[in-house]
Amino acid sequence: MRLTIFLLLSFVTIYSTSQEILLKTKIDSIQHLINQYSSKISSLEKESDFFKKELNRYILDQTEGETYICISGTYIYKNSNGIGNLKKLSYGNKVKVLQADDKLFKVLFKGIEGYAFRDALISEVDYAKNQLVNKEKADKKRQEQLVLLEQQKKREQDQLARQRQQKQNRKNRLIKKYGAIQGEKINNGSIWIGMSKEMVIDSRGHPSKINRSVGTWGVHEQMIYNNDVYIYIENGILASWQD
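Above: the chain's sequence. Below: its structure in token form.
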């Protein structure tokens, strides 16, 4: 009896596991089919859109009238008074103009006949002309910008050349005035004990302020640069500094 129950339970377990595997296999198979058909549906939708566009292009080409292009979002209306939306027109959509009055065109778009406001449409010829004009304007603007950039570049190059020449002229003048070694050091902004007041000014420029004291010991001068560098001149000679 126990053996029979054991065998029965084993059979139920094996059967359940087998059914679970079979069910999972079926689910995987169905999912695979879903993926396949989804891909086919997507492909068919793309082909459908393509053929719709081609059909509309063919209808437009075969229909009497001038082709116009939508230049602002609008609608094709059922009635000539601009009432009753039939189809939305987007920028760039092409329609065939069948009739015209002061405010509206009678148009054909994807097999739909209706009315659209004139100011939302422009003829294909005029559109092409406008595109050409806009391109020429854009090209002209880019060319003007290039010219301005070249001029700015030239000014900066000239300014840089002048600065280099000024630096070279200063260096040549200082070397001629003080000799090669001292002239080079002064040109680099160096200062040292024993240099003259004139050398200090040639090296650092004129100070923002000078405090001057005169006594029996001679002339004492405190030269202040940018409120943080203090140079002390005793009787015309650099004696010390603080920075």
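Residues 1-16 have pLDDT under 50 and may be disordered.
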